[in-house]
Amino acid sequence: MIDLHVHTNFSPDSPMPAERACRAAAARGLKILGLADHAEFLNEDEAYIADNYDGDKIQVEIERLRKMYEGKLEILFGVEIGYVRGMERDIEEFLKKYPFDYAIGSVHYVDGVLVSVWTRERELAGADFMPYFETVLAAAQSGLFDILGHLDYVRKYVFASGNYDREKYEGIVGRILDAAVKTGLAIEINTSGWRHFAREPYPGAEVFQRFSKLGKGVMGGSVTGVTGVAGVTVGSDAHKYFEVGYGGDRARKLLRNAGFESLEVFRQRKRCSISL
Questions:
Q1: Angle at 220 between CA 181 and CA 152, to 5 degrees
Q2: Which of 145, 175, 203, 272 fits as disulfide partner to 151, beta carbons 3.0 to 4.6 Å?
Q3: At the fourth CATH level, which superfamily is domain 2-275?
Q4: Taking Cα atoms as reference points, which of 113, 231, 266, 107 lies closest to residue 172?
């Protein structure tokens, strides 16, 4: 039904034109598609905002596609922000520059090191992944974002699954979920994990079961800024056309089993719930 985490060739790591993403979404029966290209705040990243984020061009393309798919597919203007502690003011100012429908906050760097590299270095050293989760917690508490992306993304890069001890992170994951409820932040079920060695989404079912007990979703109109409501949304993290909408049916089933009855959608940074 929805996919709010799709990258196009406006992101340096995706070859997919936005029109191709829309064509794939419509062919697969999606009703709402969110194009959320990368915006990073460390200058060594390919998606550094000062060099490679062209929000004006993205906006023009989205408006063109909205006209093309009017009545067939709702297309939202999203962005995936790589959250970096200490850059909150820069992120806030960036988000004011463009008429985004929503902003996904994700952690792609820990202490200036790309998560993929950082995770493997920590694993080889026998160290835990707590600094990653502490950064995710800071993102959740920042109030900057509408959606929290791939909460436990480090699982993608762990060589041996036994080196990731879920129980060790239960406490801080609980704090992240509490922060999401308090700030009205939706948690994304990122279905790309089903395409990876992890073989389950980011985060997994047990996290959504915990989250659903913290506050039920609401139906109807705008609930922007609502507190005490646990909201969820679905994102494929697609970078290629055949990944658009990936795992959507499995995600909805998982969320229903966890106790959710609705999904969150954002328009002009305002949150509303639709039936799951």
A1: 30
A2: 203
A3: Metal-dependent hydrolases (3.20.20.140)
A4: 107
Q: Which residues pair with 274 in a beta bridge?
A: 263
Q: For residue 232, is it left (φ>0), alpha (ψ between -120 and 50) or beta?
A: beta
Question: In Å, what is the CA distance from 45 to each residue of 13, 52, 53, 112, 235?
Answer: 11, 9, 11, 10, 23
pLDDT at 257 (0 to 100): 93
- In angstroms, the CA 174 to CA 164 distance is 17
Q: Which residues of 48-68 are buried (b: 16+ CB within 10 A; e: fewer)?
A: bbeebbebeebeebbeebeee
pLDDT confidence bin for 120, thresholds 50/70/90: very high
CA nearest to 243, candidates 196, 198, 188: 196
Locate 142 and state its tokens: 């920042």
Whole-number Å distance between alpha carbons of 254 and 249: 9
CB atoms within 10 A of CB 71: 5
Which residues lie across from 36 on neighbouring strands? Answer: 78
- The mean of the pLDDT values for the chain is 92
| Contact of 187 with 140, CB cutoff 8 Å | no
CB 105 within 8 A of CB 85: no
Whole-number Å distance between alpha carbons of 214 and 216: 7
